[in-house]
Design a protein that fits this description.
- By secondary structure, this protein is an alpha+beta fold.
- It folds into two domains: about 10-80; about 90-235, Alpha-Beta Plaits, CATH 3.30.70.270.
- It has seven helices and five strands.
- It has a five-stranded mixed beta sheet, with helices on both faces.
- It starts with 7 loop residues before the first helix and ends with a strand.
Length: about 240
């Protein structure tokens, strides 16, 4: 297959002009004719070059926009893979990953909380009301923590808070503050029904096993439920 010379006409004009320039017998007519052809082809080459550059710039802009959109979609997918759709809190897998990451270098206090009698809320007021309670509870968690710790939804009505480098007693006080924030005033989404939560707190040294920390916090949580609910229990 023969390669196509995209500049065949321009090369021919340049060759003719060079030939005329080197010919001692060339007269003015030959010079003028060669120059006209050279100018014509050079002008055509400039126009084509401008079109190519314009297309290249447009293509580059389109590619940049496409890459930006792909990055945005990638970030959105990553966010959705790590966060709970209903509340925006970390999902169970992301909580476990974050906790293991913290324990590689730091001690960790873990708070696990569960909404009391949540099934009754769903049964009496419907699942949309239950969803609204879950969303409002996470809002109160964020307000109570004021940016400290990581909030996760690890089950239907069960949540966790990861507190790096916080002693057990301090974490228990945080849990009490959150408990008070939950019961402090009626939920806007369910003003006629009190919403409370029970809490379990555990502590692990750096290098500890998160599954063990979670099991101990869960044990403390069920102790709080057996003790009457709406309370905090610790398990070091």
């Amino acid at each position: 297959m023969t390669d196509v010379d995209l500049f065949e006409a321009e090369a021919a004009a340049l060759a003719r002009a060079s030939q005329v320039l080197q010919s001692p017998a060339a007269d003015v007519v030959h010079y003028r004719d060669a120059l006209e052809q050279l100018v014509q082809n050079y002008g055509q080459l400039m126009r084509q070059s401008r079109r190519l550059i314009s297309r290249s710039d447009r293509t580059e802009r389109e590619l940049n926009a496409l890459n930006a959109r792909l990055q945005q979609l990638s970030d959105e997918l990553d966010y959705k893979a790590r966060h709970d759709n209903l509340t925006g809190a970390l999902n169970r897998g992301a909580v476990f990953d974050a906790a293991r990451g913290i324990l590689e270098d730091s001690a960790l206090s873990l708070i696990v909380l569960d909404i009391d009698f949540f099934k009754r809320i769903n049964d009496e007021f419907g699942h949309p009301a239950g969803d609204a309670v879950i969303r409002e509870l996470v809002q109160r968690l964020r307000q109570g923590l004021q940016g400290e710790g990581l909030i996760g939804r690890v089950g239907g009505e069960e949540f966790s808070v990861l507190l790096a480098d916080m002693p057990l007693q301090a974490a228990a006080r945080v849990a009490q503050d959150i408990r008070q924030a939950i019961i402090g005033e009626p939920f806007a989404c369910l003003p006629s029904h009190p919403v409370t939560a029970s809490f379990g707190v555990s502590w692990s040294a750096a290098g500890g096993d998160f599954e063990s920390a979670y099991a101990r916090a869960d044990e403390a949580l069920y102790r709080a439920k057996r003790g009457g609910r709406n309370r905090v229990e610790s398990n070091g």
